[in-house]
Amino acid sequence: MKTIASLSLGTLMIAAAGMAHAEGLERINPSTIVDTSPWGFTQVVVAPSNAKTVYISGQFSGDIDGNVLGKTVGKQAEIAFSNLRKAIAASGGKPEHVVKIQVLVAGHGEDKLHAIKEQADKLFGQHLPASTLIPVDRLALDGMLFEIDATLAIPQS
């Protein structure tokens, strides 16, 4: 299996053209760099110049009081992605407006990828953002194993 420094999330295979569009956003997987199909991410996302940029802070598996919920990366990813969905909606955006995510995982190993990818698939479907997964020793709160932040580009009329 190929290895890369940064793994990205979701599932997407765009055949011949290597592109997907959603509301003015262009997703490109050039044939001249690593094949992304095993990991399912978009190599390049281009936003139109009239897009409103939104930055969402790292979301974790926290409840409204900031308590860490879930004991596994899979459960924490499920809750964090739910919180991310709420933050996206609060910005006036939609999941397809997300152009970049950054995922941090404490104690990461490839065995955790499936659970993370499953949540990305549910949220983004075929509109995958560019993404980076960064293994870390620990995160901000005790028991925290997963965190995800996002950048959106919301096309304006």
UniProtKB/TrEMBL annotation:
Taxonomic superkingdom: Bacteria
UniProt KW Protease keyword: no
SUPFAM superfamilies: YjgF-like (SSF55298)
Coiled-coil features, chain-numbered ranges: none
Region forming the signal peptide: 1-22
Keyword NAD listed: no
InterPro entries given in the database record: RutC-like_sf (IPR035959), YjgF/YER057c/UK114 (IPR006175)
Keywords: Signal
Pfam families (alphabetical): Ribonuc_L-PSP
Protein's name according to its UniProt entry: Enamine deaminase RidA, house cleaning of reactive enamine intermediates, YjgF/YER057c/UK114 family
